[in-house]
Amino acid sequence: NAGVTQTPKFQVLKTGQSMTLQCAQDMNHNSMYWYRQDPGMGLRLIYYSASEGTTDKGEVPNGYNVSRLNKREFSLRLESAAPSQTSVYFCASRATTGTLGYTFGSGTRLTVV
Amino acid sequence: EDQVTQSPEALRLQEGESSSLNCSYTVSGLRGLFWYRQDPGKGPEFLFTLYSAGEEKEKERLKATLTKKESFLHITAPKPEDSATYLCAVQASNTGFQKLVFGTGTRLLVSP
């Protein structure tokens, strides 16, 4: 029962490089999310996908793109990394009904130098 | 604008010393208030959802309560393994269920 799996766990990029953060969930959840967590800022929503085939911008979408590949997978892409994107990135998923909160992955710690 | 403020930022307790964490919120219609626990280097772990004023939820040494403007997470006789950052988040009814607004958390350290 893996829940939400994120890869990689750590990554260092040079300014201007691109990369894709991968996320997969095995709970048959419809909704998936990408958050970033910065000291003193709390978790902030980057993008979300309410269901397979749909994506929407969150609070801080600039510099990012997403793909909902299928019901299980939701990837986050940084096309040209900037130092301001140094952060810890969390993927989460949630069923569309029920009282449970989001299930989060263990995070990707990204440093852009 | 929906906002969540948690206090204190950090709290140090002795084992067995009960206390409470506060989460104050302003939202245009509350759909739900969530409490999460986050250990260092890990993702947040869901604890509770509260939906209406007066509601209470309990889990082991933790008890969450909700009023119209704030929520409390009461920790009774804490143990060192309760040390973590506790996050509060709200979901506003005007945004649908898609967005949670998080507070910055309370870092709890319980010493033996």
Largest sheet of chain A: 7 strands, mixed
How far apart lie the N and C ends of chain B? 41 Å
Structural class of chain B: mainly beta
Radius of gyration of chain A: 13 Å
Low-confidence stretches of chain B: none
Mean of residue pLDDT values of chain B: 93
Per DSSP, what share of the residues of chain B sits in E-state strands of 2 or more residues? over 45%
How many helices of chain A does DSSP assign? 0
Instruction: Tell me the number of strands of chain A.
Output: 11
Oligomer: heterodimer
Low-pLDDT segments of chain A? none
User: Percentage of helical residues of chain B?
Assistant: under 10%
Describe the biggest sheet of chain B? Answer: 6 strands, mixed
Number of strands of chain B: 11
Residue share in helix of chain A: under 10%
- Globally, the shape of chain B reads globular
Q: Biggest interface, which chains? A: A-B, 26 and 20 residues
What integer is the average pLDDT of chain A? 93
Question: What is the alpha-carbon Rg of chain B in Å?
Answer: 14 Å
Strand content of chain A: over 45%
Kindly summarize this structure in a few lines.
Chain A is mainly β. Chain A is built from no helices and 11 strands.
Explain what the structure shows.
The complex is a heterodimer of chains A (113) and B (112). Chain A is mostly beta strands. Helices cover 0% and strands 51% of the residues of chain A. Chain A has strands spanning 4-7, 10-13, 19-25, 31-38, 42-49, 56-57, 64-68, 74-78, 87-94, 103-104, 108-112. In chain A, strands 2, 4, 5, 6, 9, 10 and 11 form a seven-stranded mixed sheet that branches. In chain A, β4 (31-38) and β5 form a beta hairpin. The termini of chain A are far apart. The model of chain A has no long low-confidence stretch (mean pLDDT 93). Chain B contains no helices and eleven strands. Chain B has strands at residues 3-7, 10-14, 19-26, 30-38, 45-50, 56-59, 62-66, 70-75, 84-92, 101-102, 106-111. In chain B, strands 2, 4, 5, 9, 10 and 11 form a six-stranded mixed sheet that branches. In chain B, strands 1-3-8-7-6 form a five-stranded antiparallel sheet, with no helix packed on it. In chain B, a hairpin with a 2-residue loop joins β6 (56-59) and β7. The model of chain B has no long low-confidence stretch (mean pLDDT 93).
